[in-house]
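hi!! sorry for the late reply, been swamped w classes. u asked for the two structures so here they r. pasted raw, havent cleaned anything up. first the sequence of the first protein and right below it the tokens
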Amino acid sequence: MRAAILAGGKSKRFGFGLNKLFYMIDGKPLIMHTIERLLQAKRIDKIFIVASEKNAGRLRDFGFTVLVDEFPAGPIGGVYTALSRGDVFIAGGDMPNIKPEFVDYLIEMFKVYRPIACVPRWSNGYIEPLHAVYSKAFRAVLREKISSGENMLNKAVREANPCYIQIETLPEAWKESFFNVNKKEDLRAFSRV
């Protein structure tokens, strides 16, 4: 299965006009930590990046296919663009602690149940749509939402009747996969994990 890394954000909370995905950590950009984790997943055979037009050129330097976001309307547009390539595992580019075994597990559940999407969900109902598997069929759902001005990925996922994976039942270490870097302070947490 392909993995798509969403890299279209503006990094507003990171500060100082920096794009957090290019921030160097242990000698490499943040996004490379995410890419390297996904490359370790046995069920991922190809990785590509979905980026804003502004970021696309610099991201191509990493040697991966880069698709320019067709609808720069947040994550919903990135997922929509990624699904032009078929079924896909989606991850945010700012998720450096992804557990390859967890990615493989989600893909395995997706292949067993063949839902429109396979999304981790916490017991309080909060979902993790940027660490999930989507079928190509979900692209039509997103097209309809975007066309009607509804740009909330969470809402689109919930209304599509996905397969939910209950997070609390998973190995504790896998929960680190959801950690993402929004602010510079988050980098300290990443270095401790």
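now the second protein. again sequence first, tokens right under
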Amino acid sequence: MSEYNFDVAKITAEVVDWIQKWISANGNELTKVIVGVSGGKDSSVVSALMVKALGKDRVIGVMMPNGEQKDISDSQTLVSHLGIKNFTVNIAQAYEGLQSAFAVAGVVDVDENAFFDENKKLMNDSFSPVFKTNTPARLRMATLYGIGAQIGNCRVANTCNLSEDLVGYSTFYGDAAGDFAPINKLTTEEVVAIGDYLGLPSSLTHKAPSDGMCGKTDEDNLGFTYHEVNELARKNIKAENAEKILAKYKANLFKVKIIALPCYRPNLPLFLEI
């Protein structure tokens, strides 16, 4: 196994070349790429890589708040910075409609008066945390494919990174889905380095990763840092939370085994099979 050495210029050029070749083989010179833009580093970097590989006229950014999104200005900063066509599709009605359908079907127990009075907060409290976290992510992926179907000749970019995939911090058939995955074999720190190299605003590339729903960062929820994950994955350095990381890795490996998207694979050491 070679020593870890991340050459950001070399890796960026390789990713761009891989994107161009993949789109050429799985589309044509008019094929557009759709990216769900959250305002975080991953979707920002994927969007920037698409622009560099294909040109801004072939990249479409989609913002998908679920009701009010306090940091949506970050997404707006990104699409403005790149100059890409973009849409804002608020998924709140779709999400609430699904909740209502579940209530009518008896999947959840909801006070009838509260339900028909449209007390959405009370109704939302009747749903499990897993439902409330993963359902919006799956609705967002359905939205991206819906836009692709409407426009035609589009491919949907996956925006997950290696660090997240190693510990299962993505939604199965939600943000873990897509047609191709340009950065999902790159760690969080490598993605940040590419974003900085491409000149993205540091407020986007260095933003703490969060699901935007629970008020906590990903690392708060996980109980360890992505840096620890990255050190274990690239250098086989086992820090304080190594066993916890490995437990998450083993429990969630089936996700990436099932959703094995076409992806760019850098020639970098990797001590965990994925």
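hope this helps!! also noticed smth abt the second:
The radius of gyration is 19 Å.
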